[in-house]
Amino acid sequence: MEASIEIGEMAKAYDLNNEDLEDYAKRLKELHKNSNLSLKDASKLAAANMRLDRGVSNLNDNLEDYKKALKDSNRGSAEWSNTLSDLKTDLADILNIADGSMLSDAFAEATLNSEDLKKALDGDGEALLRLRLAAADNIIANLDVDDTALSKVQSHWDYLKANMAEGVKAGNIDQSELINSFNEMIKAGNMTKE
User: Fold this and answer.
1) What is the arithmetic mean of pLDDT over 162-167?
2) Is there a contact between 189 and 145 (Cβ–Cβ < 8 Å)?
3) What pTM was computed for the model?
4) Which residue from 10, 29, 30, 127 could staple onto 119, CB 3.0 to 4.6 Å apart?
5) At CA 69, angle to CA 68 and CA 75, rounded to 5?
6) d(Cα 107, Cα 91) in Å, to the nearest integer?
């Protein structure tokens, strides 16, 4: 019962269909029964995959429209702001971060025109990993905390990246749990961007 409640909360938080998420999680749990994957962990993987699929689909459908709208509209106008908000939502889905508003406007605009986004949308896992690392850098750089706390967070993040270098080069490390832990750290500390 508790797992169903958590799945429902996750579905609501990420605007996913509750039944689809629960079915997907159960299939993942069954597929990985030898690894003792819990339903809770399977639901996190299912949600991340569903969000990735949705984000890739939305970005593929809207990429040129986003570029045109941001180029043709005045910075700060309603059209520009709405387009940027939609772009950040889609980026949050593919990057598996809690909320697109955690990303800076500059990061979202730069990512829109990046080679890594083009490659990630074509299924390049290494490009997606590079985007996720860049997003984590961006989120950390824009935390609204005192300099000492920011320095500590940045130091820990730099240490993690340095010690993950081989896995990052090989493209075989799933960053979603790491980024989720940063999301939780940010929420727990009431930290915000800007």
Assistant:
1) 56
2) yes
3) 0.74
4) 127
5) 125
6) 10
